[in-house]
TrEMBL record:
InterPro entries: ARM-type_fold, Clathrin_H-chain_linker, CLHC1, TSNAXIP1_N. The keyword Nucleotidyltransferase does not apply. This is Translin-associated factor X-interacting protein 1 N-terminal domain-containing protein. Keywords: Coiled coil. It comes from Pinctada imbricata (Atlantic pearl-oyster). Residues 141-165, 275-314 are annotated as: Disordered. Residues 285-297 have a biased composition (Low complexity).
């Protein structure tokens, strides 16, 4: 293809289309492509033919660069025209369908109305048929009822006609039989006799089969009683032999005779006991009982006790009363009367219901959240309130359960009342339970630490009591208590500091007491808190001591005096503490500590030098 040239008129001259063999080859290739693609598709489909010629047109535009703008504009005009035609066809089809629907709308509405009229007519016919059938059904039912009544009348036995008895009433004369007042009196007597006979029939007389059942039950009860009697005799005999063996072993341990073992002593004692029992069975029973009582110091074997205990009616009544008491408790519990059931269980005879099992039963009750008091707390209150009447405190397990219930209900007031009234069996575990329930930061505000401290003090657990005092924020009172009741060692003070660290406690441990002794060296206090990652507390402690003048020398600080008294902390530990302060950006605090450490190091050097000079002088002399 050659470049464009200008015509004499000034317009650009369009170069020829075919200028070389390459253009001819391209045209041949395009024709072959068109023929090949037309063979592959349906030549009668204009859409497919349009796609083929569009692709060929694109190839021509790419090949002929000189005609590219012209051909591109021509292609765009064609595509716009085709798109407009297609759009017009789509709109024409849509409008045709819409027009057809609008044309058929009146006939559709007319058909719907006609169908509605037909259905209404059919419904009216069905309603008429239903009314007719309902009337027929009622008529049939009426006929059936009348027919059944007629059959019952035919099948019923004929009524008996009362015959008039014209005989005289037995036991009455003619005059008495015609006396109306006397007849009424006799009628009242007969009515009363009839009522008495009916009452006797219902109460005094029973079927004979029930007598057989009662006899069988009585025989079973007697057999069971005999079995229990035999079992009790065996148990008493076994207990008696064990008692003889224990007493023989105790006597052997007191004397320890030579050439005899514990087994020999027990065997000999059991043999004598069996001989005594044989004598007791024989006629000389009273003398054997007296001898046995003198030798053993207690009533003789199991055969001396008769079976009167087993047949004691008082014990049977007591067992029946306990059984009724338990049944009453179960009845109240099942009816949902939990407070009445709790009071009933707390006042049970011999404490049969004052157990952990009963408490677990109350614990398993699911109640609505809106209830102010849970059934478990009601039972615990009833148990604690009945301590004075019963005379015995609940055991350790039940006490711990009641304490846990009060803590879960946040009723520390109840717990304080129970402890002050001495209604709990207190142990170290109960104190730990209350102390661990506290979630307050120092100082404690919930009151649990005060209750735990009271328990520890009653049990003489002074270390735990001191920890509770410190957790309440009563640092000086706790240290004074520790000094008077149980003097603490250095390790104990360190453990207390780890347990409840506070600025007040640190100051109290670093201060001198009346004898001029500090409970803990200041270096130990700082290192213990740094082990627990309490850097902010340590920083505040150091800064306050550096800003507070010493009582002995107002020119120096309390920190300076405390460091000079610390002979246990090494120089390396002080250097690491200074480096830590510098790394955290507290240069002023670190500088004050460096000056104090320098003075302490100089004093230690002088002290050690004087000690060395003294040793040299002693060696020379």
């Amino acid at each position: 293809m050659s470049s464009r040239a200008s015509t004499p008129g000034g317009f650009p001259k369009i170069p020829p289309i075919i200028t070389s063999e390459l253009d001819r080859a391209f045209l041949v290739h395009v024709n072959e492509y068109i023929e090949e693609e037309l063979r592959k598709v349906d030549s009668r489909d204009p859409e497919q033919r349009y796609i083929i010629y569009r692709n060929v047109f694109n190839k021509i535009i790419e090949h002929v660069s000189a005609y590219k703008p012209l051909l591109t504009s021509i292609k765009k005009e064609y595509e716009d025209t085709i798109e407009a035609i297609q759009k017009g066809q789509r709109e024409a089809a849509y409008l045709h369908g819409k027009l057809k629907a609008m044309a058929s709308e009146p006939s559709t509405i007319r058909n719907y109305r006609k169908r509605a009229d037909e259905l209404e007519e059919r419904l009216s016919v069905i309603d008429k048929d239903n009314d007719r059938l309902t009337k027929q059904l009622e008529e049939l039912k009426q006929k059936r009822r009348s027919h059944e009544e007629q059959e019952r009348e035919e099948q019923a036995p004929p009524k008996r006609e009362l015959k008039k008895d014209r005989r005289l009433i037995p036991g009455l004369t003619l005059e008495e039989a015609t006396d109306l007042n006397l007849l009424y009196k006799n009628l009242d007597v007969l009515d009363r006799q009839l009522k008495e006979l009916n009452i006797s029939l219902r109460t005094r007389y029973l079927p004979k089969s029930q007598k057989v059942d009662l006899k069988d039950k009585l025989d079973n009860k007697v057999d069971y009683r005999d079995q229990l009697v035999r079992q009790g005799q065996l148990y008493r005999a076994k207990r008696y032999r064990l008692k003889i063996a224990v007493e023989a072993a105790q006597a052997y341990n007191r004397v320890k005779p030579p050439h005899q073992t514990v087994g020999d002593a027990v065997t000999f004692a059991l043999a004598q006991a069996s001989g005594m029992q044989v004598q007791e069975k024989e006629p000389g029973q009273e003398q054997g009982q007296q001898d046995g009582q003198q030798r053993e110091g207690s009533p003789s074997g199991p055969h001396t006790t008769t079976s009167f205990d087993d047949d004691d009616p008082n014990k049977e009544k007591e067992a029946e009363m306990m059984l009724e008491y338990i049944e009453k408790f179960n009845e109240l519990f099942e009816d949902g009367k939990y407070e009445d059931a709790a009071i009933h269980a707390a006042n049970s005879p011999k404490g049969i219901l004052r157990t952990s099992a009963t408490l677990a039963k109350f614990r398993d009750v699911l109640v609505p959240v809106r209830r102010q008091k849970s059934p478990l707390l009601s039972f615990c209150e009833a148990v604690m309130a009945s301590v004075g009447a019963v005379g015995t405190k609940p055991n350790k397990e039940l006490s711990e359960e009641c304490i846990q219930c009060a803590l879960n209900e946040n009723r520390t007031d109840l717990l304080s009342h129970w402890i002050s009234q001495d209604r709990l069996s207190l142990t170290k575990n109960t104190g730990d339970l209350i102390s661990k329930h506290c979630r307050c930061k120092v100082p404690c505000k919930c009151g649990c630490q005060a209750l735990a401290q009271n328990i520890y003090a009653k049990l003489h657990l002074h270390n735990d009591a001191v920890v509770c005092l410190l957790k309440q924020g009563r640092v000086y009172a706790g240290l004074e208590y520790a000094k008077n009741k149980a003097p603490f060692s250095k390790d104990t003070y360190m453990e207390v500091l780890r347990t409840c660290p506070s600025l007040q406690l640190m100051q109290a441990l670093a201060a001198e007491d009346d004898s001029g002794v500090r409970p803990l060296p200041i270096g130990t206090i700082i290192l213990v808190l740094l082990e627990n990652n309490q850097f902010e507390l340590v920083l505040q402690f150091i800064q306050e001591l550096q800003n507070t003048p010493s009582a002995d020398d107002p020119k120096t600080s309390m920190f300076h005096a405390a460091v000079l008294d610390d002979m246990e902390t090494s120089s390396d530990q002080w250097d690491s503490l200074v480096k830590l302060l510098q790394d955290q950006g507290y240069e002023e605090t670190a500088t004050g500590m460096i000056s104090t450490i320098t003075v302490m190091a100089a004093m230690k050097t002088v002290f050690y030098k004087s000690l060395a000079d003294t040793d040299d002088e002693e060696k020379t002399t």
